[in-house]
Structures
1.
Amino acid sequence: MENPPPLDAALIQWLQDVGDRGLFITDTSLVVFRWNQWLAAQTGRAETDAIGRQLFDLYPTLPERGFDHYYREALAGGVRILSERFHHHLLPINRNLHGAGVTEMAQTARIEPLWSRGVVVGTITLIEDVTERVVTERELRNQIAASEQARELAEQASRLKDDFLATLSHEIRTPLNAVMGWARILRTEDSPRARSRALDIIERNALSQLRLVEDLLDMSRILSGKLQLVAGQVDLGEVVRTAVEVVVPTALAKRVTMTTTCEADLPPVSGDADRLQQVVWNLASNAVKFTGAGGSVTIDLARAGDDHLRLTIRDTGEGIALDFLPHVFDRFRQQDASPSRRHGGLGLGLALVRQIVELHGGRVGAESAGPGRGATFWITLPVSVDQKIDPPLAVESGPVTLEGISVLIVDDDDDAREMMLALLGHYGAHVRGVASAEAALAELAKNPDDTDVLVSDVGMADMDGYALIRRIRSMPDETARMVPAIAVTAYANTDDRVRALVAGYQTHVSKPVDAGVLATSIANLVKGKISPRSA
Amino acid sequence: MMTLTALQQDALVELLNIGFGRAAASLSQLTGHRVLLEVPTVSLQAIEDVGDALERVVQGHVASVHQIFSGPVGGDALLILDESGASMLKELLTNEPALPLSIDASAREVITEIGNILLNACLGTFGNLLKVRVSFSVPHLEIANVAAILQSLMVAQHGLRYALIVHAGFRLRNAAVTGYLMIVLSVASLDRLIHAVDEWEDAQS
C-alpha cells in the first residue's frame, strides 16, 4: 500500500464517533482520557469536562457499588461483563423513552484492560443502552402470562359448558322416561286408578320439562338482550304471596315448615310482575329443594332504607361450601355437578334470578356458614319513583288503537322524531314532538293536562333522557310529575334499560323502534285511565 | 498420553475449590441469594475424547460461555450448561421466569456474566499459582450442541491438546443446577500447570 492511512488517528476518531454505545478509556490511575460523543450526549457531560478527571471522582457511586473491584481486575488483565439484570446500569443516565416518560437507562457494560506491548496501560469501558430491550422483554413476559390466563379461563368455560350439556341431556331425558314409561303402561293397564295415576305422573313430568325449556329460552333471551320486561307498578308483597303458594304443597310433602312475613304498607317497585314472581318462585323452591324433612324456610320482605325493598329467604338446609359461594349465581354452575348428585335441575334458576333482578336495577346475594348450616339468599329492588300501583296488566288482544291518547315525543334527532310522529299517528294518537329535554319540560309545565304519555330518547345532547325524567318526577304540578313515561334505549344494552327504570321511566322500548311494540306499551300505560278528553 | 496422579488431582481440586469459593461469594453478593458451589471433581481428557465424555452428561443444546486466555499459559475456558439448567439458573438468580434462551437476551446476558465470574475466578487462581499474568478475551455465549462447540475449538488450533473437565454443581434456594467447566490447554501449557501444581503441593506439605 503506497500511502497507508494514519491508523491510530483514524481509529481514535472512529471510537469517538461510535454512535450507538458509550466508550471511555482511562489510564492505570483510572483518569479518563477518552470520552466518546455518545457519552457526552447521553450524560450531558462534555468531553472537556470528563477528560483529565479520575473516574471515581466523576462518578462516586461506582466505588460505592463495588465496581472499584472490577476496575482493579481489569488492571490485572481480567475482563468483566455486567449484565443489565444484575446491575441495571453502570453510569446513572436518564433516558426519555417514548411512551414511558423519563426512566433510568438500562445498560449492559463491559470493563476490559487496555494492553500495549504485553502490559496493561489502562482500562476500556463499553456501555450499551438496553432500555428498549428490557421494556420489550417485560411486555413479552406479560403477554405470555396474560395469554396463559386467557387460555385457563377458556378451558374452564368449556369445561362448564361440557358439564352443562351433560346435565341438560340428563334433565331432558328424566321426565321423558317417566312420560314414555307410563304411556306404555296406559296401553296395557286400563283400570281407572292406574289411568289416573299415569296421567298425573305424565302431566307432572311434562310440566317439569316445560319449565326447563322455559328456563333455557329465558336464559337465551337474556343473553341476546331480547328479554322484554312488561313494566308496571308491582306490589312485591302480592308477588311473594302468589309465588309462595305454588311452593307450599312441595314443602308440606317434604315436611318443611314455611313462614312468610311481609312488612305492612310497602311502596311498589317498578318492574315486570310475572318476572319478579319467577324470581321469588325460583328462590323459594330452591330453598325447599335443599332443605330436608323437619327443616324450615323463612321468607321475609321488608324495607331496606328509604328507596329499596329487601326480600330474604333463609333455610336450614344443606348450606353452601365457602369456595362455591361466589359462583352460586353463575350460569351452568352447580355445587355438585357429578353424575351421582342428588338434586336435579340445570343450574340456571339462580342465574336467571340474578339476571332478572339486575334488569330491574336490583341486587342479589347469598350467604352461608358452610355445608350443613343452611343458606340465606336475598334480593333488593329499588322502590318505584311513581307511587301508584297499577292493576295487573292484561295482555293486549286485538289491534291496538291509540285513539284519543296524547303523546309527547322527545328526540333531538329530527328524522327519528318525525318517524315516531308518523308511526303513532297511524294508530290514531294525537302526537306532538319536541327536540330537546328543555323543550319537553317547558311543554309539560305549560300544558300539564295535554300529555297522557311521554316518549323520550335517552341519548340526547345537553340534557339526556335520565336527567329529563328526574326533573319531571320532581316537578311541582302533580299531573306533570306523574306522567307515564317510556324510554327509548339502545338495543341490547342492559345497563341503559336498568338505568331508565331506576331513573323513573315506567318502561322502555329498544331501538330500532318497532311501531307495534311502542303502541302496545303506550296503550298498556294509559289503560283504564283514558281521559275524558278523548271524548 | 498425559495423566494426573492422585496427588496432582487432589491438588487441582483444592486449587479450583479456592476459585469456586470466590465465585460463589461474588454470585451471592450479586444476587442477594446464598449461592454455594460444590467441591469440584476434575478429570483430564485428550481433546478427541472430550465429546464422548461430555455427551454422557449433557444432551441436546447447551449454553456455553467461552473465554480465550493467553499469556505464558494459554487456551480456552468454557462453562457448559444444558439449556434447562441455564434457564433454571437464570430463574433462581433473578426471580423472574426465563423465556426460551433464543428470545431472552437478558437470560443470555445473565448466563454470560455467571460464566465470566466463574471462569475468571478459576483462571485467576491458576494465574496466581503460576505467578503469571493471564489475559482474557471478552466472554462469548453460544447455544449449540456439544459437537458443534467442540468443532469450533478444534478448528481454532491444531496439535495435541488436553482438557480439564471440572464438574461444577451450583446450589441455591433449595435447588441444584449442574454445569461443567472445560479448560483446554496445549501440551506445553498443561506441562507448566502440572509442574506448578507439583511445586505448590510440595510447598504445602
2.
Amino acid sequence: MADPADTRDAALLAPIERTGRGFYWTVGLLSLLILWGAIAYWTQFDEGLGVTGLHQPVSWGFYITNFVFFIGISHAGTLISAILRLSKAEWRRPITRMAEVITVMVLFIGAGQILVDLGRPDRMLNIIRYGRYQSPLLWDATSISAYLTASLTYLYIPMIPDIAILRDRVGKRKLFYSVLALGWTGTERQQRVLNRAIAILAVLVIPIAVSVHTVVSFVFSMTLQPMWHSTIFGPYFVVGAIFSGIAALIVAMIAFRKAYGLESYLKPIHFRYLGQLLLVMSLLWFYFTFAEYLTGYYGSEPEEMKVFWSKFTGPFWPFFWGMVLTNFFIPILCLMRLGRRTIGKVLIASLSVTVGMWLERFIIVVPTLSNPRLPFGEGLYFPTWVEWGELAGSFALFALFYVLFTKVFPVISIWEIREGREVGLKEVEERLLTYLPDAAEPDVVGKRTEVVK
Amino acid sequence: MALWGMVIDLDRCTGCQACVMACKAENNVPPVGAKEAVRGRIISWMQVLTEEDEEHPGEVKRFVPRPCLQCDDPPCTKVCPVYATYRNPEGIVAQIYARCIGCRFCMAACPYNAKYFNWYRYQKEAPGQNPDVSVRPKGVVEKCTFCHHRLQKARERALAERREVAPGEYVPACAEACPARAIIFGDLSDPGSEVHRLARSPRAFRLLEALGTKPKVIYLSEGEGRG
C-alpha cells in the first residue's frame, strides 16, 4: 500500500517538505501572543494571584473557564473521529487526523490551566503525594491523564503507515521517522493488526472521553452552590464539549485547507456533513440549556433565583444573551440551508459557537460565585491584563503546537485516503448490496476482511 | 472527646466588631491595605454581616457575626484534593497551610464564604505578632480555627499540672472580647455546659440549616426570620 512511487497525494507531503513565508509569519505572530502570556504568568508566579481580578467571593474566573473550555474542545477530536470510524462513515478519511491532533494539543493546554490557576504551583505534586480521592479534582486528574494517554496512542497508531511513507520519501529527519515507523512495511499482517488496534482504541476512547467531561462538570455539581448543584451537569457538559469540539475542528479544517491548498481533499460535502452535525449539537445544547434553566426558574428557590436573575437581567446579561445568540441563533440561521456557500456559512457558525461555548463556561463559573448565599452583596469580576494574557497565550500556544505538528506529520492521513480509493470503494459497494433485498445472504458479512471501515 | 461549639446570641450583638478585631490580632490576620480591600481581598476570619430589613429598605435588621461554622459535615473538606483541610476528631475544621496548593476549591464549595485566600504575600514574620499562630505564605487558603492554638496551650498547661482541661479554660479570642457577652463557647458534648443548654433553646437556629452541613456555631434569635 505504501508505494513510494505514488505521487497522487504529493499535496499532503508538501507542507513537510517545503516551508513558505506564511509559516514564519504565523509562528512569529503566535510567539508574540505566547510571550504576552508568558510575561503574564511570570508576573503572577512572582507576585501572587493578586495580580488577577479574582477576589472574595469570585475566587474562580478566567482560568477555570478556560480549563472547562479547552477540555471541552478536546472532545472534538478523538470522540468524533472514533464515532465516524465506528459508524463506517467514509467521508471521515481526510478529517480524522485533524480531529485527533486537536484533542492531544488542547488537552495539554486545558490541563495547564489548572496549574496556572493554582496559588502554589510549586506544591503541585501534593496531588500525588497526598491525593484525596473524595475530591472531584482528583477525578479530573485521573480522567484527563487517562484521556491524554489514550488519545496520544489513538493519534499515533493510525499515523504509523504515514510515518513510514515519510521515512521512505522525505529526505529530512530520517532517524526520527524510522524509529517512529516501527518497521512498518505495509504487509497484510501488519495492516490487519493495525486495523484491529484502531478498532479497539476507537471503542475504548469513547467512554474515556465521556468520563472526562462528566467529571469536569462534577467539580461544580458536587458542591452545594446554587445553579451548580444540578444532576444534568454531566451530560450537559459532554454535549457542550462535543458541540464546541466540532466547531473548533471545522475552524482548523478551513484554516489548513486554505493555508496548504487542500481544496481537493476537504470538499464542501465534508463541511456540509460536519455542519449538519453542528446543527444537531446546537439544538441539543439548546434543549439542555432550556431544561436546566426552566427547572431552576420553576422551582424558584430564592438562592437559585438570585443567580438566575443575575444572568438574565443582572450584570451578566450581555454574556448570557450573547451566549444564546452565538450558540443557538447564529448557528441555526447559518446551518439551516447549506446548499450554497457552504464553507463560508459553516465557518461563521463555527467561529460563533467557539465564542459562545467559552461564554457558556464563563456564565456557569462566575455568576454562582458572585452571588453568595449569605448577605455579602454581589461580587463582580473584572479580569486584568494578566488573565487576558493567559487567554491569548493559551490560544496561541494551541495554534502553534498545531502548526508545528503539520510541519512534521501529514495533517491528512495519506494511507487512509489511499485505502479509500483502493479498498473502500469496493467495500462500500459490497456492504450496500448486503442491505438490499435482492442479494442472497452473502458471505461478505461474515468475512470481515477489515474490521474498521 | 470534646466537641467544641459556639453559641452567638444575635439579640445581644451590637455590631461593635470587637470580635473581628480581637480575632485579627490573635491570629495574625494580615491587614491587606485599602487598595486591596476595595478589590474584595479583605481577610477576616470573623466577619460581622448585616442583614437588611426587607420591610424597611436601607435599615439594618440585625448583625450576624460569622466565624467559620466548623460544620460537622463540611462541604469544604470533601473537595480538597490534598487533605489540606479536614475535620479533626474534636470537630474543628483545620487547614494545613504548608500543604495547601491554592486551588481554591474549598472556597468555591463553602456555602458560608468562610475561607480566605492570600492573593499576595501580605505579611512577613514581624515583632508584635502572636508567636503561637503561624504567618501564612502567599497562595494558600486560611480560615478560622476556633483559636485552636489556645486549646493546645490549655492542654499543655493542664498536662503540666496533671489535671484535665477545665471548662472555660479554652475560649477563642472573639468570645473573650465580646463586650455584650453575645458569644459563648464550650463543649457541646458536655451536658452541663452552657453551650449545650443554649443550643437546645427554642431561640436556637443554625445558618442555612437546610443544607445539612451541621454547623457547630449556633445562633440565638427571637422571633421571625431566624433561618
